Each structure stands twice: as structure tokens, then as C-alpha cells.
Amino acid sequence: MTSQPQLDQLIARFQQNGPVRASSLIVTLYGDVIEPHGGTVWLGSLFALLEPMGINERLVRTSVFRLAKEDWLTAVKIGRRSYYSLTGSGRRRFEKAFKRVYSGAPAAWDGTWLMVLLSQVPTEKRKRVREELEWQGFGALAANTLACPRSDRTDVMTTLNDLGVLDDSLIFETRGQETLASKAMRLQVRDSWRLEELGDHYREFIALFRPLWQALSENKALDARECFLVRLLLIHEYRKLVLRDPQLPEELLPADWEGRAARQLCRNLYRLTARPAETYLNAVLETADGPLPEVNDSFYRRFGGIL
Questions:
Q1: What's the pTM?
Q2: Mean pLDDT in the chain?
Q3: CA angle, corner 64, sides to 60 and 67, nearest 5?
């Protein structure tokens, strides 16, 4: 139990599917907490952090072992203690994903589109290619035509090359248009990127965390441990939404787009809890050299700056 019933409700909600979501929560923990402190911690200190979430020692061990098999983590044993770090590929995946979580406002859009045609890609590879491009913000305009209003051509070509389909793909870039978001364009964007479904998930996020923000705004303070739990659950839920969000330009989004309110709420709660949570983390987490290293500079630039 904590001092805030709203926080207890969030923890109880997570625990309903705890065994299924433990590995995902550890991914969030490494990305939000451990990576800015150097990326390595003693396995035993993870037990203490995750115990309030209903994740016991056995489940932590099982989840960490699974993440190691999937090349997210690697272990070094010193005496009887195991210390888990991000692998090189794991760190690259973290940086790519969490950069989207903490990014500031998107840059202005110039009206150009990047389009990829998959009609010549072998049928058995199309599903994988589509999934990778959709993760980068592409939407389906037609059966084998994907488009993105904000994408780096070099990144896309690298992705296609890594998937072994670069020579089979057709890539086009359009010019900017005077009318960036006509009625027809907005309707196409709504359908191609399933914005209504994503908007529903953003509304659910707001409904989960707004009561806690309102309680804290009324000077109902949390201790350092509770701040850590809020921060972890906040980023865990927000991360899942942002990685599904194509992060379309403002010109293409509905006027009442809930993603804006969700981002502001996440930013406010994160700024409120980040520093107190660090006090708790420094007391609990250990590395092979003892206490945690200081956080890197990028930590203080999250969400446009942590005050």
C-alpha cells in the first residue's frame, strides 16, 4: 500500500497481468532508469525495485533470462552476484525507442511524403517489412503502398537493406503541397493510421493518470519510493502508446487529438516525480563498483528539460 489510493489502483491494474507484462516492465526500467546511469545493475537490486509491483524474485530471474536470450541484456558474474547490462544491439534499440518517448515538439512539416511500394517484394517478406515501416511511422495508403509524411530516407533504406528487400522496393519522395491537409487528406490519414483507435488508447491513459496528477497538484506529496513507482508506471504505459503513434505532423491531426493532452500530462507527472525518484534509486540500485554512477546529461533534457 502507498499513501495515494490512485497509485494503489495503478499498481493493482498492472498486477492483474503481472506475469505476462514483467519482461516489458523490465524493458521500461532499463530504458528509463538504468540506461542513464550507465546501463548496468546487480540483479539483486532489481528484486527490491520490482517487488512492490507484485513481481517476485523468481519472475524477475525468468524475465531477465528471457531478455538475455533475446539479446537485450548480457550478464557478468562477479563472485556470487550477477550484473546485467544492455547489449550493444539492445542499447541501440533502447535509444531508438526511448528517443521517441522523451522527444520535444516535432519539427515543422514541409508537406513532403516518403512512399515505399512493396509490390515487387517477395510475398513471404511483406508482412515483416510492413511491420518495421509502420513502427517508423508509415501508414498504408493502398495494399502494397506505404507512406510517411516525416521520415528519413537514409533510415528507411537502412531498414530495407537490413531486411534484405532494398533492391525489391520502390522509394519515392513527393514535393511539398500548398494545401498540406485537405479534407480528403485528413480522411485518408484517419483511415490509414487508425487514429480513432489510437485516440481511444490515449483517452484511457489520461483517465488512468489524471486523477493522480490532480491529487498531487493539491499538495498530496509522495515519498521518494512512491515517486519512483509513479514514474515507472507512467513511462511504461506511455511508451507503449508512443511506439504505436506515427507522430504525424500537426497539420494532419484532428483538432481535438488526445495525444497532445496525454503528452502534456506525462510531461507534468514526470517532471514532478523524476528527481525524488532518483533519490530512491540511488539508495537501492547497485553496480559492481558500488553506488550508481551519476545520470548522464541526456536525462536532464527529457521532455524538454527536467527542472
A1: 0.87
A2: 89
A3: 145
